[in-house]
Amino acid sequence: MKKFLLFLAGLIALGLFIANLGPMILLGVSVWLLYIVFKQFVKSDSTAGKIGWIVVGLIVLSIAVSNVYAVVGVAAAFVLYWIYINWTSRTRDSTSEKEDDPFTNFERQWADLNK
Fold it and tell me: What is the pLDDT of residues 10-53, one digit of tens each?
């Protein structure tokens, strides 16, 4: 039942991730552009240049703010990662229980002694 619920949660998270992939890319590009605009603003010596960079920065900031709901896609990616970790840890737990079985270890050691 837990694996089924993890699977359903994974499907929902995958759908949210795919639906928000475009806004996530735009948000990332706009944050990167904001960084570049800030660096150019700091380098600029003239007042007109600084005003120009502020205007460009405000335009890019409006793009970033309009795509802020892309954080839902980032959260969905985190949920997918969490589900993947839980899914693989459950399979590791089941294999480690088999390896800790004393009869399996005895049979392996007995086979090594008979060689």
Answer: 899 999 999 999 999 999 999 999 999 999 999 999 999 999 99
Copy the structure tokens of residue 14: 């995958």
d(CA 50, CA 110): 80
Q: Please give the distance of CA 88 from its chain centroid, rounded to a whole number.
A: 17
What is the rounded end-to-end Cα distance, in angstroms, of the chain?
A: 44
Closest by Cα among 36, 37, 23 to 71: 23
- CA-nearest of 89, 85, 66 to 77 is 85
Q: What is the pTM of this model?
A: 0.65
Give the other-Cβ count within 10 Å of 27's Cβ: 22
Measured over the CA atoms of residue 36, residue 41, residue 46 and residue 49, the dihedral's sign is positive
pLDDT tens, position by position, 61-114? 999 999 888 989 999 999 999 998 988 876 665 555 556 666 677 777 778 888
The DSSP 8-state label assigned to residue 70 in this structure reads: G
